[in-house]
C-alpha cells in the first residue's frame, strides 16, 4: 500500500472523526498500575443521589441479559479502531427501575480512576458494562474484569476496571476532566481539551 | 500481555522545563495522601496515557498530572502538599 493511498483514506474515511488515524492493534493506555480484582470479590455498585444503592456480584452480572455490541472506538490520543467486538450488559438493564432525578453520572473504578458523563449518554443503547472482548474474557490491561463502554465519546470516558456509578444532580468532573480534558468529549466535534 | 510499566520521575525534567523555569525533577515533594517526602525524580510516571501521571512511590496515589494540548498545558499538583525547590543562595547584606 502506498503512503499516498493511506493518506487519502485517512482524510476521506467518513467513519473516522476529525484528527484521528486508524489503527489495527489495540494500544494499552493506563494512568496507573493495573488493579487485579478477583471475581469473587468483584462488585458493581449503582448509587443514586439520595444514597440508595443497587449492587451486583459477578455471578449476578452474568445472569443479566447479555449483548454483543460491535462498535468503533476513538481515543483522545488520536487513534481510532473500527469494529471492536464486546460482550456485556447494557446500562439500560442496570438503570432499569432505578428511581433517580439525577442528570449526571460519575463512573469510579478499582484503582481510583473517575470520569463523568451525562446520564442520558448512558441510556438508550449507548453504553454497556463489558466483560468480554473478541470472544474472550476482557484482559486486565484493557480494563478487565469489567469496564464501561461508551463508544460515542472519547475512550477515556469508557472507564477501565469499573466498580460503580454515582448518579449526581450536579456535574462532577473526573480524573482527566479536572486536569484539562473536555467535560463531554465528543470525538465528532473534536472536544479534546477544555474550551474545545 | 505485560504489566503496564512506569518511568522514572527524571523524565519529567523536559516536559516540566517547558512549562516552568525551575528544574522540578530536582525538587522535593510531599505526598498529600501518605505524607511521604522525597525527590520528585522518585515519582513513578505513567506516560502511556492522555497525560503524564506521577504517582507516589510509597502509596501509589497521584501527586502530579501534566496535560499538554498543542497550545496549552495543565499542571495539577493537588496530590502534593508542597514542592521544595532548590534556589541559589541569597547574597547576605554586606557589613557596614
Automatic annotation (TrEMBL), chain A:
What positions does the domain Oxidoreductase molybdopterin-binding occupy?
32-176
Name the segments for region: Disordered: 1-24
Q: Which Pfam families match?
A: Oxidored_molyb
Give the signal peptide range.
Answer: none
What Gene3D superfamilies does the record tag this protein with? Answer: Oxidoreductase, molybdopterin-binding domain
What is this protein identified as? Answer: Sulfite oxidase-like oxidoreductase
Name the source organism.
Micromonospora humidisoli
Please name the taxonomic classification of the source: Bacteria, Bacillati, Actinomycetota, Actinomycetes, Micromonosporales
From TrEMBL, chain B:
What's the short name of a Pfam family annotated to this entry? DUF6510
Question: Which InterPro entries does this chain map to?
Answer: DUF6510 (IPR045423)
Q: Which domain of life is it from?
A: Bacteria
Q: What is this protein called?
A: Uncharacterized protein
* Organism for this UniProt entry: Micromonospora wenchangensis
Organism lineage reads as:
Bacteria, Bacillati, Actinomycetota, Actinomycetes, Micromonosporales
